[in-house]
Amino acid sequence: MKNRSIGTPLVNLGAWFWLSCLVLVPLIFVFLLSFMTRKTYGGFEAVWTLSNYLKIFDPSMGILILKVFGRSFLLAFVTTFFCALLAYPFALFLVFKSGRYRHFLFALMIIPFWTNFLIRTYAWFALLSDSGWIMQLLHQLGFELQSLNVLFTWKAVYLGMVYNYLPFMAMTLYINIEKIDVKLIEASHDLGAGVFQTFTRIIFPLSIPGLIAGSVLVFIPCLGEFVIPDILGGSTQVYVGNLLTQQFLTARHWPMGAAISMWLLAAILLLIYLFKKNQKTKWGEAQI
Amino acid sequence: MLETNGLSKSFDGQRILQPTKFDAQKGEFVSVLGPSGCGKTTLLRLIAGLETPDSGRICLDGEDITHTPSHLRDVHTVFQKYALFPHMNVFDNVAYGPRCAKQGEAEIKKSVLELLSMVGLENYENREVQRLSGGEQQRVALIRALINQPKLILLDEPMAALDAKLRLQLQSELVAIQRKFKTTFIYVTHDQQEALNMSDRVAIMNKGNIEQIGTPLEVYEYPKNYFVANFVGTIHCLDASVIRSEGVSLTLKIEGMGEVLCESKIGETSGEGRMCVRPEKLSLTTRKVAQKNSIPATVKNQTYLGTHTLTEVVLTNGAHLTVFQQNSERKSRKEILVGDQVFVSWSKEHCHFFGEPTL
User: Fold this and answer.
1) Rounded CA gap, A192 and A198, in Å?
2) Cys-Cys with B203: which of A144, A178, B213, B237 at CB 3.0–4.6 Å?
3) Same domain assignment for residues B11 and B74
4) How open is the CA angle B353-B355-B359, to the nearest 5 degrees?
5) Alpha carbons A215 and A206: distance in angstroms, whole number
6) Is the same domain home to B11 and B120?
7) How many domains would you assign to chain A?
8) Least CA distance to A283: which residue of chain B?
9) Are the C-beta atoms of B284 and B298 separated by less than 8 Å?
């Protein structure tokens, strides 16, 4: 609220400049592309058509696209949910109980980021393969390796997704919960609320913006993820990301890929619209 | 009703609160007054149960609550910056206590609305707390603490964020509410005017110790030591030593000035120390006054302030004193002018002698 007027035009100009360069122009390009026609040997030409969009109503292709969309949304939802479920207690612990180990634990969460994302994913590949020590350990404990069969299934994909996106949720939640004024928690205890009531009435409601921000941060990239399903799912599972890479790189049908992207964008916008419509509290409104 | 005994607390090896004895009676308004960092807030937080004491006991109505968790104590706090819950409106903030105590919603609604109208906040129940002014926030915080009718209400400098005029108004409102509810209030402040104005008793704290507990008049007129005398109100102190003592009556020699008489009520009867006297107890005359301590001085400066006049004089040993004279008569002409030779006089009952602090 304060000092909003100082330097505002300049800041606005900068923001708009980057916003147009990084979001608006590419988006317009993809939008235009989606109405174009594929040339015989890949590439595209400005012959305008709606056929790319109408493909979704074509029985065989349409069902495939919808299935992939459904699978991707499910993956993104479940990943976000489990990230929140695991990160929330961790963030709570970090803020309220970790004491002088707080920075150490926070660093532990960050350190994996210093390793390349692909390497981390391949590490899971190694861990989950039949010769990896997790499988070997389970085998020693008497499990049948055939029946476990994690790698190259949806199980490995979900595991890899939650693992990779967990820190985003944890960091966002930590930063949010850490901001909660200790005085409010003391006031709650003082007015007769125990630990549980203080959590449900004060800490949780005040952390909802963090939960929303973290969910957006996890959900949106999850939706477009194609590397983890490729490596850990062994291409047995096609998600939106894979479909798009296929269209752009393998089939070399850029306009088709662009049209699918626009359908996906529409689906996300619809989702956000529905979410905001049902949202009653003012908290988190600014977050999306 | 509230009694603490030998209560002490250290943070990071530093004693913030020395073992202290403190008490408050039922329906009493007790202020804890002291400079910042004197441990007054720590004392309050120990009573609220927001800190655990290193030693000592806290008793409320004869029941030992030293280790009772905060939420089970019949004690509510008005926090320094109010700590109103930002995600709730005024109604939900005030209703927090009774809801935690699982009271019926209808009953809660009735008492919340009643309290809101009592403090002049009718129709405020749906307002967001961040949109309220400082004074309104303070009232909401107060009734949020009052609504469960606790035995004890603690107030941690609740007026610190408000402007001076509003503060005076809220002081009288606060006292009126306290009298009405007959709840015990413990009010922490560094503002002595606030403490003297509202309290039945004032506890003066310094460096983790309670130096004196007494009525406002007691701590002002009969300070037990130099710190209290110097902290509450204004007081002039001159280096002095005892040359004779007969019971409470002391004959003091002031450095470079001569002898004065002083009645010591605190039992200091020998040694070096300070003779202290308040500005309003001094009088100025052109002749020596026989029945009082009376020493020569030169008028240095005079300030006329309507209700009173402040006259600054210099003693022959170079010490400066300010004399407070109430302008109870209209005078067309000043009796004493700058540069005049005068006598500063005070009676022996009105001055104090404090020995050198044993630090």
Assistant:
1) 9
2) B213
3) yes
4) 145
5) 15
6) yes
7) 1
8) B87
9) no
In this structure, are B186 and B119 located in the same domain?
Answer: yes
DSSP 3-state of B59: strand
- Cross-chain residue pair B87–A281, CB shorter than 8 Å: yes
**Backbone angle region of B242, left / alpha / beta, with phi > 0 → left and psi within -120 to 50 → alpha:** beta
Shortest Cα–Cα distance, B356 to chain A (Å): 42
**Chain centroid to CA B66: how far?**
26
Q: What is the predicted ipTM? A: 0.85
Spatial distance between the Cα atoms of B337 and B157, rounded to a whole number of angstroms = 44
In whole angstroms, give the CA distance from residue A120 to residue A126: 10
Q: Tokens 């300030």 sit at which residue?
A: B303
| Domain limits for position A254 | 54-287
Which residue do the tokens 């052109």 mark? B286
Q: Taking CB atoms and an 8 Å limit, are B83 and A186 in contact across chains?
A: yes
**Cα of A77 vs its chain's centroid, Å:** 9
Lookup: tokens for B100: 């935690």
Distance CA B121, CA B355 (A): 53
Q: Is A44 helix (H, G, I), strand (E, B) or coil?
A: strand
DSSP assignment of B271-323 equals: SEEEEEE-GGG-EEESS--SSSEEEEEEEEEEEE-SSEEEEEEEETTS-EEEE
CB atoms within 10 A of CB A140: 9
Residue B30: CATH number of its domain: 3.40.50.300
Q: Hey, what amino acid is at A277?
A: K
Q: Which of B166, B195, B230 is the last residue of a domain?
A: B230
Instruction: Specify the residue for token string 């005049």.
Output: B340
Which chain A residues are Cβ-neighbours of B69 within 8 angstroms?
Answer: 189, 194
Domain count, chain B: 2
Question: Which residue among B50, B85, B97 places its CB closest to the CB of A184?
Answer: B85
Q: B15 forms bridges with which residues in the sheet?
A: B10
Quick check: B66 and B116 in contact, CB under 8 A? no
Residue B79: list chain A partners with CB under 8 A. Answer: 183, 186-187
Cα of B326 vs its chain's centroid, Å:
24
Q: Are B272 and B355 in contact (CB under 8 A)?
A: yes
The CATH number assigned to the domain holding A98 equals 1.10.3720.10
> Among residues B359, B356, B357, B350, which one has the least CA distance to residue B240?
B356
Q: Which amino acid is at A230?
A: D
Instruction: List the single best residue of B51, B77, B87 to mutate versus A (max A Cβ within 10 A).
Output: B87
Comparing CB atoms, the residue among A181, A205, A283 nearest residue B83 is A181
| Contacts for B273 with CB less than 8 Å, ≥ 6 apart | B239, B240, B241, B242, B353, B354, B355, B356
Contact B206/B229 with Cβ under 8 angstroms? no
Give pLDDT tens digits along chain B (359 positions).
899 998 999 998 889 999 888 999 999 999 999 998 899 999 999 999 999 999 999 999 999 999 999 999 999 999 999 999 999 999 999 999 999 999 999 999 999 999 999 999 999 999 999 999 999 999 999 999 999 999 999 999 999 888 888 888 899 999 999 999 999 999 999 999 999 999 999 999 999 999 999 999 999 999 999 999 999 999 999 988 888 888 888 899 888 888 899 987 777 777 888 899 999 999 998 888 888 899 999 999 999 888 899 999 999 888 899 999 888 887 766 678 888 899 999 998 999 998 876 54
